[in-house]
Give the backbone structure.
Amino acid sequence: MKILVTGGAGFIASHVSEGYLKAGHSVAIVDDLSTGKRENIPSSARFYDCDVTDLTAIEQIITQERPEIINHHAAQMDVRRSVREPLFDARVNILGGLGLVDLAVKYKVCKFLYASTGGASYGQVETVPVNESHPTAPICHYGVSKITLERYLFLYKHLYGLNYTVMRYPNVYGPRQNPYGEAGVVAIFALQMLRGDQPTIFGDGSKTRDYVFIDDIVAANVVMLDKGEGETLNLGWGEAVSDYRIFEEVRAASGYSGDPKYAPVRPGEVEHIALDASKARAVAGWTPKVSLHEGIGHTVKFIGQSNACAANP
Ligand SMILES: NC(=O)c1ccc[n+]([C@@H]2O[C@H](COP(=O)([O-])OP(=O)(O)OC[C@H]3O[C@@H](n4cnc5c(N)ncnc54)[C@H](O)[C@@H]3O)[C@@H](O)[C@H]2O)c1
């Protein structure tokens, strides 16, 4: 199939693009390289250096590529930036996404796959894990902008019959995640520990998240090419893993021997979240496979071997 992947120079969608190429699909990537890197782009994918909010350029790419699938990963995904610059966040995540959805209908794209967030959609929850019927009540602008596009997809299916699947991601981790970013605690801790720097835990270490390794997320993107029509699906283990446990796992994998330092929790952060993915298992047969221990081992090894340890680029 011909697949247009947005955000394919970034952490997750570069792996997804590789997964599609490996499965024999043809891949074109759109990315403005704002946080993504050119070296992440698979050499056999066609690349367009383009902002998703530039609809004229995006329409030209779609007329040239005529994709059967649009897989949308490009996003402003910095929670703190979303709080500081809500209009920018909305422009990229809502208007950029909506423009693509609109073009998907105009050019009769067979399916729109959307990388949404479970971690930032549900807000402060009483108990974990949550399933998709739990109300969404985001406590950061990024969460609002990401689920807004979900609503448009629902609407476009209702009005125009657009086929889509929303994947609500947990905390995804693995090789190529930016260790200098504001999120991505596994990569951040790994780099700090490998350099011998003392990592900071925001809060007292008891905040929890659901962590899924990148290979399992790639598998979901492959299987959802023809499964989960019109569905919104959580991806996750359903397991709430504390910040301190992540610290301990990365410490064991990196050989670091120190303790963390602690700082106040940052605005927009939920206390606890874990995602019940029973529906993804039922409709698409998807379950995660790579354990936290194994996935953290791969990630620490990758960061140790990359030049990330040498200097902040
Ligand atoms: N990493 C996670 O744990 C996680 C969790 C939930 C959801 N997600 C979603 O997954 C997607 C990918 O996240 P990631 O972790 O790979 O982040 P990333 O920053 O590595 O990737 C995002 C990519 O989008 C590109 N991009 C940003 N704005 C763009 C624009 N206006 N036009 C074109 N390209 C643009 C960036 O250059 C980058 O390559 C995002 O949509 C994010 O909301 C990620």
